[in-house]
User: Which sequence fits this backbone?
């Protein structure tokens, strides 16, 4: 397969099919002003540059381009919020006013969404004004894409959707059509930034910063038309690797000068460049520790290079010892980010954002929130999520992640402030906003995301980054309304409940047949796909469950364990500290308990393990039946290829889930010797 | 590194250093006759083609080239055994008479060995005649070398000694100097055949049979000078892959004709070609099952193609279901070869040799012998050993395999006939001899074998294939005497006991800290290096230990288990059937027993697991001390680079052995809950 040829008519339109745009394209419309995003809006509507607002039923504009209210057919102009948009509906027209060109384009896509949702719900939006402001200023997708195929990690690290849409054959693609289509999809969700290369920066990828700038600029040009800035992942060792210096010491003036010069060159090529994304001193990547410097020293040096241009450093907090000794139960990977970074609060410059994974481990389906998010009030923080399903089914299992993300964003870490408010800079500590970032799940797959239903995760990320108060169910409704906008009304009314049946509880179901009660991992080493209960148990990676014949779990209490629970503010510190108050779903994350420990459900831990694995697999029957119920719509509401791919994935999910169920059940039966009270077969 | 440049002065001479040849090169010598091997012998001695036997103290000849006894200075000619040689020592001369040119050359190397050993023992050979005949007609090394680097398995599958000496950069090497050096080393051990490519035949390698024949002929030319034939591993699907046919059905006349024609072309290029080595219907390789045909159908069809040229089919018996369900305890991989092949006894043509791995599983450090070897009296059988240390330390651990091989060869499978006698055709069932084959451990490493001491395994294989009655200790003495022929006498006297200390018990020591009591595996999936107790426990590969909280082991009895024990003839059938009579070292291979089961040593199984892992690691102290005792000889008797490599490997061995010890001990402590009575720390 040659990747560039994959830019073909067979690519699925995701949540922007022509049918979703058609109702607007039928209206007489006018787009005021010019600029990359306003030109895009005009093209989306097929509006003439000379169209008169007087005749238009749909007007799009950046508020700064609007002279008088009358010029857009209104009696007064609304207060357009920063970065956001207003949608004004009158008897004869809809006016979209953006804070700027990108915001106006996003506002147009908001109208597309509203029209589609109205068709689903049967409730059309009435006259009036709707203001919409983004909750997070940074709404970014990180691509773990390698330019050259990596011998172990492939082209897209933790990618399950084919090759990269950016790179092929060791180079940036000549044809960026798929990148433009992707930018369009993202703009419709509210995403405004993209990191275009893997945070593990290998030799070829490091050179994007220097001799690859021409190609980087081509990518930026595409994204610019959709209001999306680009970031580069850079190697902290670049001055040595690329600059011929013999050091990358952040306090070395030559090093700082090299970075300043590098930043100058980047901005000369990409004036609206976002900044650098850095994974330093993490899993083998170089960093300031090599020179006895702190992470603040490292980040601030890069920040200084970017400051003249308005750029930002996104510095990842994912720092831990990945050469840990499994024999040493005092070392706790969960503690590492806090131990490294909390003492540095207040020392990062104001164009540094510390990017913190949602949990203290690594994107498990169930973890507590990271206490780092509560511990650095004077630091700009960004929450990092993972859209690509590394540990949540690798796009072979349905796992709609929005419910989990919404829970993280709404979680009140100190009992008062939600995570969303903290990263939005409304946490009260004085630090400006950081934002939200996530690892993309997109590749050059015909359905973008391998599993067609995994498109909903990408969609939901952008929407929840914009507004974390949206419910996961409403976001799913939006995605259904847009994606199946071409379906006849009665068909759409059947697709909707079927997809809710398949997706609403999918994440809990996945949790149900995989690692129990928050203990995490139990995955095949390397690939992280499929079960291997002891796969990481005697490894240096710090991810253990400590199951023995009597019990299981990691004691992270302060009283007798690693003390991780004590990194949380009240009330969570106390809640997690005690076996009695720790939520059952996190019990084994915080405590080592006997198999006979009784959960809130009244079941013992081991019986819960037995039952939940089997119940979750049985639950797949409902999923399969729900999809099967749409069989007569295949070829009409549901494209044939879409259906075929979903079925193939559902088959694979069942096989994998059965394997999970049986391995986990057998493992604990062999270890505990406790019979399954349900009488189900244990192998 | 460019591989071809590795043909350099730094390559270690292994067991043929100049010092080993020097005593003979100092003598006036004559080599009678001509031919590739006699020319080689002449060159080895630096003898003039016109040298007169009258003046020679050393005469080498093929017996057919000798006119009268007087022409070689003897009063009568000895009866030279088929394939072997006679060494006649008189007062003034040594006469080497080979059954043919290759045998004469091997006889010359035997004299080299005798001279070196005499120096070690202080006992010079006296006058008289020594006759030496090979016990096995086939003494072959199989190379699992890929022409093109395989994305998963690399250049040499299960190779731990660098790249291939045959191939580099996807082609047969232009410079075959290392191949010639290798051929010379092999000739000195008695090896007479080499399979030059991997039994897993990938696309590039399959083409050696067709458009690669010119290169194959170049390799054959090199080996011919050392009396070594070459074999090709072929894909059973070749008629489809290479011939454009739409079938590889062995009963299809077009298929048979294609193979006959392919064989004609091979023999036109390589007149002394050995034949085909075939892995069929095994681990994904194609075979006759796809056409509903038997393995006899497949092998006999190839045999017919080779028969006009005198060639042989080596057909591997390593056939089993590698997609087994771990839940199904009735399916037993150990049974597979017998179940597939024993019913076919008597149906293979006489130029087919069935190549059988020594154990029923896969080259574990401890397995019973394969019952297939006793079950096919009317079939030519070859024993397959593994010199490359896939499961025995991967040339990072010292593991001198000769004691184990000698045990296999001498094992009396039906209480009377040894394995060596069965494969030598002296088993009484009427089948002619098969022989012995082994997977080579050689690569383009400067020491040939990664670990310098692993050279001794390669040496020992050839010697034991020639004569299985040699003791492992005597073979090690030979290897020491030759390898360190340049050492001063008193130094050599110190090297000898030090190396025996390091190597004699090394295989038992490795067994001691790895999988216990014959249960096998417990290795990291994929690489097979390092411990992972449950690594293959829930896999489709059929290699399980079934440890639970109460006990461990695989019930292969006929009474209650898979019935594998019943595949053996008496008395082993009865011996293995019963827990009481089964040897402890194979207990867990044949039986599932409680941890409290008491072994012959008086220890329980679990205490044995605890103690043996720790004892074996402690035993490494003696190994390290023995090597350290030679420190003052580094730079004289022991080359500096040789010492550095051995030390690096000993360090790595200790680290790996500690990991094995701790993981296995912790695993069984967690599972059994039984305290280690020795009081040693368990993590």
Assistant:
């Amino acid at each position: 397969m040659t990747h560039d040829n994959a830019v073909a008519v067979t690519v699925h339109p995701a949540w922007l099919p022509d049918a979703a745009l058609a109702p607007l394209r039928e209206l007489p419309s006018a787009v005021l002003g010019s600029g990359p995003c306003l030109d895009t809006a005009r093209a989306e509507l097929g509006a003439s540059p000379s169209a008169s607002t007087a005749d238009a039923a749909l007007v799009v504009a950046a508020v700064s381009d609007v002279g008088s209210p009358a010029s857009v057919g209104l009696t007064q102009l609304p207060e357009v919020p920063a970065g956001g948009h207003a949608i004004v509906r009158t008897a004869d027209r809809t006016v979209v006013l953006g804070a700027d060109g990108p915001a106006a384009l996003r506002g147009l896509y908001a109208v597309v969404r509203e029209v589609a949702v109205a068709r689903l719900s049967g409730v059309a939006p009435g006259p009036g004004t709707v203001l919409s402001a983004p909750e997070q200023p940074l709404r970014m997708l990180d691509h773990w894409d390698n330019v050259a195929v990596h011998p172990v990690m492939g082209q897209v690290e933790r990618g399950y959707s084919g090759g990269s849409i950016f790179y092929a054959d060791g180079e940036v693609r000549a044809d960026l059509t798929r990148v433009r289509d992707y930018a369009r999809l993202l703009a419709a969700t509210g995403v405004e930034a993209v990191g275009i290369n893997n945070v593990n920066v290998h030799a070829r990828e490091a050179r994007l910063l220097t001799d690859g700038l021409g190609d980087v600029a081509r990518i930026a040009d595409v994204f610019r038309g959709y209001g999306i800035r680009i970031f580069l992942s850079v190697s902290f060792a670049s001055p040595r690797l690329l600059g011929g210096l013999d050091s990358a010491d952040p306090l070395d003036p030559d090093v700082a000068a090299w970075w300043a010069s590098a930043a100058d060159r980047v901005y000369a090529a990409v004036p609206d460049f976002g900044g650098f994304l850095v994974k330093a001193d993490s899993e083998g990547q170089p960093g300031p520790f090599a020179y006895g410097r702190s992470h603040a020293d490292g980040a601030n040096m890069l920040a200084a290079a970017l400051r003249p241009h308005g750029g930002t450093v996104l510095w990842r907090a994912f720092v831990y010892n990945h050469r840990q000794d499994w024999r040493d139960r005092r070392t706790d990977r969960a503690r590492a980010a806090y131990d490294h970074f909390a003492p540095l609060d207040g020392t990062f410059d104001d164009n540094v954002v510390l990017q913190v994974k949602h949990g203290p481990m690594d994107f498990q389906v169930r973890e507590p929130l990271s206490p780092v998010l509560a511990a650095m009030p004077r630091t700009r923080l960004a929450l990092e999520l993972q859209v690509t399903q590394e540990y949540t089914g690798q796009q072979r299992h349905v796992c709609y992640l929005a419910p989990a993300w919404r829970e993280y964003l709404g979680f009140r870490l100190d009992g008062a402030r939600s995570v969303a408010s903290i990263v939005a800079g409304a946490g009260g500590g004085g630090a400006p906003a950081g934002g939200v970032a996530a690892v993309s799940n997109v590749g050059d797959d015909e359905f973008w995301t391998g599993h067609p239903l995994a498109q909903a995760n990408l969609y939901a990320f952008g929407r929840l980054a914009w507004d974390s108060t949206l419910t996961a169910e409403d976001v799913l409704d939006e995605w259904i309304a847009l994606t199946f906008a071409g379906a006849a009304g009665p068909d759409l009314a059947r697709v909707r409940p079927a997809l809710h049946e398949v997706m609403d509880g999918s994440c809990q179901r996945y949790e149900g047949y995989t690692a129990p009660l928050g203990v995490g991992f139990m995955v095949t080493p390397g690939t992280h796909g499929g079960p291997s209960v002891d796969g990481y148990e005697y490894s240096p990676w710090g991810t253990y469950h400590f199951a023995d014949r009597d019990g299981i779990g990691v004691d992270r209490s302060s009283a007798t364990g690693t003390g991780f629970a004590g990194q949380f503010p009240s009330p969570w510190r106390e809640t997690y500290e005690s076996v009695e108050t720790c939520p059952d779903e996190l019990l084994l994350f915080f405590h080592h308990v006997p198999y006979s420990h009784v959960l809130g459900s009244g079941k013992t831990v081991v019986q819960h393990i037995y039952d939940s694995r089997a119940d979750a697999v049985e639950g797949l029957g409902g999923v399969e039946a729900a999809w099967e119920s749409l069989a007569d719509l295949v070829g009409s509401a549901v494209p044939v290829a879409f259906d075929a791919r979903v079925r193939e994935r559902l088959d694979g999910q069942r096989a994998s889930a059965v394997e999970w169920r049986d391995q986990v059940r057998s493992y604990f039966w062999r270890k505990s010797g406790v019979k399954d009270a349900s009488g189900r077969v244990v192998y």
About this structure: The first strand of chain B starts at residue 29 and ends at 31. DSSP finds 21 helices and 19 strands in chain B. Chain B has three domains: 18-132, 138-483, 510-554+592-672. The mean pLDDT of chain B is 96.
